[in-house]
Amino acid sequence: MNNQLKLLSDETFEKAAECLKVMAHPARLKIVNILMQGEFPVHEIAQLCNCTPNQTCEHLRLLKGQGLLASQRKGRAVYYEIISPQLPGLINCISKNCVI
Q: Which helix (H) or strand (E) holds 84?
C-alpha cells in the first residue's frame, strides 16, 4: 500500500455525501444557480424554476435545513440567499464538467 496517499477525512466525505444527497435534484441545483446571482424572494425563484410556490418552498426548506441557505423576511416576502461557500463551487464544477 502506498503510504504517500493524501486522502480527505472520512468526516469530509460524509459531509460531502449529505450535501450531494440534498443537491441531487434539478430544481435544487437551479435554485442554487439562481441564488448565486443574489438574494431572491420565493415567488421569483418559483417562477424562474418553473415550479409551484409550494414545490419551491419545499426545496428551499430542505436546503435551509442543511445549513446551505438563509432566509430573511422583508415585508410580506421571504428572501433566500446562499450561506454555504461550497455551493457556488459545486455549480461551477457542474458548469465546467457536465455541460452537454
A: none
Ordered by start, the domain boundaries in the chain are 26-97
3-state helix/strand/coil string of 48-83: HHCCCHHHHHHHHHHHHHCCCEEEEEECCEEEEEEC
CATH architecture of 26-97: Orthogonal Bundle (1.10)
Report yes or no: 31 and 43 within 8 Å, Cβ to Cβ.
no
Mean pLDDT value of segment 20-49:
96
Angle at alpha carbon of residue 97, lines to 93 and 98, rounded to 5°:
105
Least confident range of 41-55, 56-70, 84-98: 84-98
Residue 100: what pLDDT? 66
Q: In the numeric block, which cell numbers belong to residue 48?
A: 424562474
CA distances from 75 to 4, 48, 90, 91 (A): 56, 21, 32, 30
